[in-house]
Amino acid sequence: MIFRQLFDQTSSTYTYLLADQGQAVLIDPVIDNTDSYITLLKELDLTLVLAIDTHTHADHITALGKLRELTGCETRVGEQSKADCANGTYRDGDTLNVGGLTLTTLFTPGHTDDSYTFMLEHDGDTSVFTGDTLLIRGTGRTDFQNGNARDQYQSLFSNLLKLPAHTWVYPGHDYKGWMVSTIGEESAHNPRLQVKDVEEYVNLMNSLDLPNPKMMDVAVPANQACGEV
């Protein structure tokens, strides 16, 4: 398996390249980095067969449409997404196959109403690509795009945190330079997860009072069109 964690400095977004048997998938690609993705695929002699987003992003424009145009890859989004431009959708429990790799889709709403996590089990390791649902020492905000703190609490405590403690956590963003964590580490040390019940979590999330992402008014409609501005 080939694995690369790629970073967009402007939005602090992580994009993930997974590949096996010459076939590759990109998770959460950023349109401004399309050329570098194409170059990397050529250097590694990989064919991009799939590009997917964990959710409709508000802080950057997706590269799904541009990558499909340039490579002919398939693009897929969650069935709850308002984007009707992708080749297809996925729902909770679906499997996405790339080479010999299988990604299982987990519906983890709360940050947005179309948020998903992708789980990979390979060579005895389990990894989850959590988008903005679970971050390293944080969780995604729940105050726009039909976000819901109660839904996110359930996604975290009834879904992700039920995974084995050694499960690797690869988030959609990090603003401190941290690259990877584990379910056990986040359960023990993530301050957003040290709550006694859902009501305390809802109160915590509702008290954040964060400004809207700078690109929100441009990024959301563009991403509903697979990156067409």
TrEMBL record:
Residues 12-173 form the Metallo-beta-lactamase domain. GO terms for biological process: glutathione metabolic process; hydrogen sulfide metabolic process. Its cofactor is Fe(2+). The keyword Cell inner membrane does not apply. It comes from the Bacteria. Keywords: Acetylation, Dioxygenase, Iron, Metal-binding, Oxidoreductase, Transit peptide. One of its GO terms (molecular function) is sulfur dioxygenase activity. InterPro entries: Metallo-B-lactamas, Mito_Persulfide_Diox, POD-like_MBL-fold, RibonucZ/Hydroxyglut_hydro. It holds the Pfam family Lactamase_B. Belongs to the metallo-beta-lactamase superfamily. Glyoxalase II family. This is MBL fold metallo-hydrolase.
